[in-house]
Amino acid sequence: MPEDLKHIADDYRWGFRDEIEPELALKGLTPETVKKISEAKGEPAWMTEFRLKALETFFKLPMPKWGPDLSELEKKFDEFYYYVKPPSRGPVESWDEVPEEIKKTYERLGIPEAEQKVLAGVGAQYDSEVVYHKVKEELERLGVVFVSIEEGLKEHEELFKRYFAKIVPPTDNKFAALNSAVWSGGSFVYVPPGVEVEVPLQAYFRVNTAGFGQFERTLIIVDEGAKVHYIEGCTAPLYTTEALHTGVIEIYVHKNAHSRYTTIQNWPTNMYNLVTQRAVVEEGGYHMWLDGNLGSKVTMKYPSSILKGRGARSEVLSIAFAKTGQHLDTGAKLIHQAPDTSGRIVSKSISKGEGRASYRGLVKVSPRADRAKANVECDALLIDPESKTDTYPYMEIENETAQIGHEATVSRLADDQIFYLQTRGLPEDEAAALIVRGFLEPVTKELPLEFAVELNRLIELEMEGSVG
Amino acid sequence: MANRLEIQDLWVSHEGKTILKGVNLALPLGEVHALMGPNGAGKSTLGKVIAGDPNYRVEKGRILLDGEDITELAPDERARKGLFLAFQYPVEVPGVQVANFLRLALRERLGEEPRIAEFYARLKEAIELLDWDESVLSRYLNEGFSGGEKKKNEILQLLVLRPRYAILDETDSGLDIDALKVVARGVNSMRGPEFSALVITHYQRLLNYIVPDVVHVMMDGRVVKTGGPELALELERRGYDWLKEEVAGA
Ligand SMILES: Nc1ncnc2c1ncn2[C@@H]1O[C@H](COP(=O)(O)OP(=O)(O)OP(=O)(O)O)[C@@H](O)[C@H]1O
Ligand SMILES: [Mg+2]
Fold it and tell me: Total domain count for chain A?
């Protein structure tokens, strides 16, 4: 293998593809493509209409004029596949029904079968179609809905329609419009009033066709006093064609409900990752976004919480790791719309080589939001002299009683720390990885154990050969 | 010659400035030596260079550990051979829990994953010896530690890692009298035929508790005098001027 390719492969340890030929693949961004997607999914007419309108909106809206350079992407919207249906019967109820090929893929991804049994329900998205989806009986008994977004639309149409695209309308931004036109795959979750789901709901998914953009769409509704933790882990194989991932995540947290959305994404380094994540939090409710971003060519992602009801709270914790050739523009938004709302943003970024990590955040306090409290902490760690970071903290405070704190730090991987750890026997690489893990600790300590372990492994891989 | 840490005619510079000017010193395994000398004499530099600090340049001379030339080895390789430096200014490593760090360091020291029981036994023993609270184990490495706590933490690491040769750089400075006793107790507990220490200090006070076999005095980048414990007492009484004159006159 040529040296540079080998390096890429090392970088991306899950960089393999498997042999399944897609049943239907739609390339190019046209109304015909959109209609065929809708048809293939057997959707009601209103959804077809919605998609077509969203496509018009997409063409009308400008590309973002701020943030990372998207000019290359703009030229090749027609080169992506917008829908890929694998040769499978769609959702299956038991593990035995999952095709052998697909099982092999999961094995290579290192998702142990035992873990799936322990988990409440494992939804695994294979390309755009959920091929394996199992909801534990317990959840069903509690009335919790945890299905693919397609099933959500089919089986819970009224509920679906009430919330879908209400938090992130297609007009929100160009990529939300694109997702609205061609969305495929994702989860639909409904937790009834007062129900506390103790085990996290986990979904794994992956992207599997060259040049294929993934347009996942997730809608989570946490009804009054309910509690849920949704986890999305994502690994994708490596291709030379530039790939596009444009997701939309909408979460509605009702009165006194409690929700968490955790995601660690490790994208191949040719991927455009442009995601809109937004939650609305009603009175006394709480929502946490925990967002880890590794890999990709460009990431733009700003998980947002709209604190709509009195006393609503939210925390947004994020990690970004940018290496040479990567620009991760990530951050958070807190929109305080009611009195006594509070929020906290913790953003940790690492830039290595010529990588660039930017923090972009907004804290907005409306005139009604008396005594709103928000605290922003963004810390950047630079590994190499040529590594880059920048910070864009926007504040729109329209209420004098608001208490807003902002703290930003930039530090460099310090030689004296490395030497200190080395004198205790840790090799230089390990010392550097340990310092990075320590830097991320305020965020990783909030992760479920197996995720923290996985993230630490990824960090170690990313840090290999970084010093000396 | 085996079983000793030996410094032979060591010349060291930093950014063009010569700091060590031909240090000779031998620390046989099983002995405790004190290293004294005025501010700026080069004591800390010597300690760091023995530990392998890449900031300094060895111009000439050798460092031998049990007969092996370690002058070119990386700091971690030296540590794995049983060398330890308690820093004059321990470094803060945010987000890294003391216990987790000690486990990783012990793994390197032992060359294999320590057995959980063994690891906890070492931790418990060390914590008790230092009259400390277990809560320190879940704190982040030196972050927010008081000056005295940082010094104690160096000794905690010493006790858990059990090196063969330890250099303690002013571990006594900034300690209150109780902490001083506790630290001395920690070091004394390590004493034996398989352990050596080079104790860098300005004060006789520490040497009342850790009684050295040999005392060296450094001045202007050299070891200028070597004697028994009484040398430290003499320095305490008379200061360094007489020695300076003696060196100049020689
Ligand atoms: N990293 C460095 N950068 C610049 N100068 C240095 C550095 N390290 C040592 N020096 C210089 O070398 C000389 C010896 O310093 P060193 O810290 O070794 O002395 P010391 O004997 O430990 O003194 P003290 O008793 O004050 O701790 C001093 O003049 C000091 O300024
Ligand atoms: Mg010193």
Answer: 1
